[in-house]
């Protein structure tokens, strides 16, 4: 979750706008903070002015944060638009851009992850971002590899956790640090990373974080493929094959009235018929606990899939309303 270029300088040297007010407009552009001090000054400046700005009538001004790893696409921008709505016209929207080394496992190329801070900042100027916090790793982890980390518990041991051991712990550790640094009233996360959203919500609840966690629906291309920074790695042929994921989810959702077993069967048939798609998992789980739902389950469930198409690993999910089928 999560670089202007390394020579862009600190925000104090390259301010492109002040937080709040017109800072998120396309003409001003967001302030870029590279250090903790830059960020702290931007937050304090808004906090001092927010009580006056909120008298305008739209309700209490709030600070909203969207945490990303950069390489922003329309799905990220939709999150920022939603954050602008949640924060209000006089609120503050902070976007963090940080490629977090803790969530990359063995065999995952951290150095190859796409980075385009200048391009990202340009995009964010058009969707209402006030501040971009783009720290270097030694700013987030000033003492090196952290000894104390957040554990995702059993949520981090299944699904993504089975194929990417330690990944969810790395996600929660950086999310908690960024919550402490940004001090938001609300944090917005995309529902495409459903397991991550659930883990963040449980961390906020279990550790009493004073922040509202909001999930925002997945943004898809017209052909149904969920937007992801990883889609850039797909060739034209691979992209066509990748559509099997969303087709499988739709087939499963349409089978919800016939019970959980049929949801799994219909989705599996689509994936089994697809060529060039190597499935890591297909699971129908409780949307609160991530436990597999039994065949007699009735109510909402979450259908998740992860698969490799070529060298690219993709994830997707769909909420399913399941009816109990008693024989």
UniProtKB/TrEMBL annotation:
Q: Which GO terms describe its molecular function?
A: ATP binding; pantoate-beta-alanine ligase activity
Q: Where in the cell is it found?
A: Cytoplasm
Region spans: Disordered: 1-29
Per UniProt, which keywords does this protein have? ATP-binding, Cytoplasm, Ligase, Nucleotide-binding, Pantothenate biosynthesis
Q: Which Gene3D superfamilies match?
A: HUPs (3.40.50.620), Pantoate-beta-alanine ligase, C-terminal domain (3.30.1300.10)
What EC numbers are recorded for this enzyme? Answer: 6.3.2.1
Named in its record, the pathway it takes part in is: Cofactor biosynthesis; (R)-pantothenate biosynthesis; (R)-pantothenate from (R)-pantoate and beta-alanine: step 1/1
- Predominant localisation class: cytoplasm
Q: Which reaction does it catalyse?
A: (R)-pantoate + beta-alanine + ATP = (R)-pantothenate + AMP + diphosphate + H(+)
Q: What residues bind beta-alanine, as annotated?
A: 103
Q: Where does ATP bind?
A: 69-76, 190-193, 219, 227-230
* Keyword presence, Nucleotide-binding: yes
Name the residues annotated as catalytic in the UniProt entry: 76
Q: Specify which residues bind (R)-pantoate according to the UniProt entry for this protein.
A: 103, 196
Its annotated function is as follows: Catalyzes the condensation of pantoate with beta-alanine in an ATP-dependent reaction via a pantoyl-adenylate intermediate.
Q: How does it assemble?
A: Homodimer.
Q: What else is known?
A: The reaction proceeds by a bi uni uni bi ping pong mechanism.
Q: Which family does it belong to?
A: Belongs to the pantothenate synthetase family.
Q: What is this protein called?
A: Pantothenate synthetase
């Amino acid at each position: 979750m999560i670089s202007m270029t390394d020579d862009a300088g600190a925000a104090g040297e390259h301010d492109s706008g002040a937080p709040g007010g017109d800072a998120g407009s396309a003409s001003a552009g967001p302030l870029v903070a590279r250090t903790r001090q830059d960020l702290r000054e931007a937050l304090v400046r808004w906090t001092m002015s927010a009580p006056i700005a909120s008298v305008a009538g739209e309700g209490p001004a709030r600070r909203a944060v969207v945490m990303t790893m950069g390489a922003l696409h329309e799905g990220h921008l939709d999150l920022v638009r939603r954050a602008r709505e949640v924060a209000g016209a006089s609120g503050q929207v902070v976007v963090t851009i940080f490629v977090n080394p803790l969530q990359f496992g063995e065999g995952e190329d951290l150095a190859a992850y796409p980075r385009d801070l200048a391009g990202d900042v340009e995009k964010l100027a058009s969707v209402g971002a006030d501040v971009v916090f783009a720290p270097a790793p030694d700013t987030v982890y000033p003492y090196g590899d952290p000894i104390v980390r957040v554990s995702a518990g059993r949520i981090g041991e299944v699904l993504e956790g089975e194929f990417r051991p330690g990944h969810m712990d790395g996600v929660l550790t950086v999310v908690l640090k960024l919550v402490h640094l940004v001090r938001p009233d609300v944090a917005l996360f995309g529902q495409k990373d459903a397991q991550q959203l659930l883990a963040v919500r449980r961390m906020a609840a279990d550790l009493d974080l004073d922040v509202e966690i909001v999930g925002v629906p997945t943004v898809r291309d017209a052909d149904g493929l969920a937007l992801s920074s990883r889609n850039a790695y797909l060739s034209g042929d691979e992209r066509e094959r990748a559509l099997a994921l969303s087709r499988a989810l739709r087939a499963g959702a349409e089978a919800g009235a016939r019970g959980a077993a049929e949801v799994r069967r219909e989705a599996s048939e689509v994936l089994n018929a697809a060529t060039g798609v190597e499935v890591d998992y297909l699971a129908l789980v409780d949307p609160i606990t991530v436990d597999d739902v039994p065949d007699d389950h009735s109510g909402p469930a979450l259908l998740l899939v992860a698969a490799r198409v070529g060298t690219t690993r993709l994830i997707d999910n769909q909420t399913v309303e399941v009816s109990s089928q008693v024989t």
